[in-house]
Automatic annotation (TrEMBL):
The keyword Signal applies. This is Uncharacterized protein. Keywords: Signal. Residues 159-170 have a biased composition (Pro residues). Residues 1-29 form the signal peptide. Residues 182-196 have a biased composition (Low complexity). Residues 159-230, 268-292 are annotated as: Disordered. Residues 172-181, 197-214 have a biased composition (Basic and acidic residues).
Amino acid sequence: MTFRRASLSRHGLALVAAFGLLAAPHAHAVGRLMDVQVIDRDSGETLPVYSHKGEHWVAGRPGARYAVSVRNASSARLLGVVSVDGVNVVSGETAAWHQTGYVLSPWQQYSVAGWRKSNSEVAAFHFTASAASYAERTGRPANVGVIGVAVFREKQVPPPAVLMPDPAPHPRSRELGRAAESDGAPPSSSPAPQSADRSEKAEPAESMATERRMAPASPAPRLGTGHGAREHDWISHTTFERRSHQPDELVRIRYDSHDNLVAMGIIPSRALPPRPNPFPGGVAPGYAPDPY
């Protein structure tokens, strides 16, 4: 069995990758705050990312185990809510932003290698036919063929305020204050705070628009992610208060088999077309041969 270390959380708590590795950025990573890569675990290859019509694609090998590598590229803790085929990889719920995810320390890297089964085990990801994918077997086929990471920054707690006693007013100040009151002048006050209703009401619309951008362009990819063998993968729990209800970054990577990506024009074909013969039945003219 493969032994690794990570962490998990539920009901608003986040998971912490306990023994993530510090690593330099790799090629083929997608993301700004968090570098996201897809690793073929059987070959050790980092799958190259193909850009096509504004989308990122990788080619998976049917039957191969794979992992979603996430790396914190910032100097502060980040939460990554990871989904595969529209399913939260930790809880198994139909994926949504508010759900549990993995918390990474600054510059930390962690490989999400399977569906979380407990604090110590995952069921390995592997590329398989769409009909055999975990999502389709649990009645959720619409988003098979896409990997997503919703990245959240952590809310910073402000330092406690230092309260200082007001200095005693100067006698002359008291006299000026009484004179102002006698003249009927209104007392000095700070500007009234502005209402936050506008930004709060706009949030659902903005969230819906971003979700529409996350929706897959094609609902019927031919390759999906299966529910594989159990592997040891330890996690611990932590708390994480998000700075915002909306992700600070959304990473989306679609995948399918190499042949299908070639057929869709995403990967250029390197095969040369056959050279046609204008006289396929023709035979070069000859003469009577010499006897032997």
